[in-house]
Amino acid sequence: MAKLALVDRNPSTREELTRLLQAGGYDVEAFGHWREAKSALQLAAVDAVVLCDWLRLGGRGSHRYLWRVAGIAPFVLVCDGGVTRWDDRFMAVLYYPVSSSDLLGAIEAAIRGANQSLTLGGYRLDLRRRRLVWGESQVRLTRIETALLRELMLAQGRF
Length: 159
Fold this sequence. Notes:
Largest sheet: 5 strands, parallel
Structural class: alpha/beta
Number of domains: 2
Shape: elongated
Order of helices and strands: EHEHEHEEHEEEEH
Helix content: 25-40%
CATH superfamily of the largest domain: Response regulator
Radius of gyration: 17 Å
Strand content: 25-35%
Strand order of the largest sheet: 2-1-3-4-5
CATH architecture of the largest domain: 3-Layer(aba) Sandwich
CATH topology of the largest domain: Rossmann fold
Number of helices: 5
CATH class of the largest domain: Alpha Beta
Distance between the termini: 40 Å
């Protein structure tokens, strides 16, 4: 069962989304503010972060505080139609009103995309654990190193 962190300022919406996601088979930990989520994410890993009411949770940059502690967990943004610019690291951006099937589908696709590993030659890049593995050896990578190696491995053969 995949574990989600849900961040939504509105208590009734948060409860409704929690029930929906639990019915969809997810283990959900819900938070009313990114600061609460940040504290929890420092202690336990999640498979994805669902961030709602982006502007009301502390502004356009508040999600960056969560990225620092969420590892490589993908982010799904649910926002109102007034938001036209966002960070391109969101795996999915949905606008209110959002259907339950669209939300569940976006989360499933985000988790599936984040759980990949890439192989090139004798090297395997584990995107989930941020490790480069070759033979019996492995090295732990930072988020930036993982992103850079991912892009280089995907670009192999294009130059």
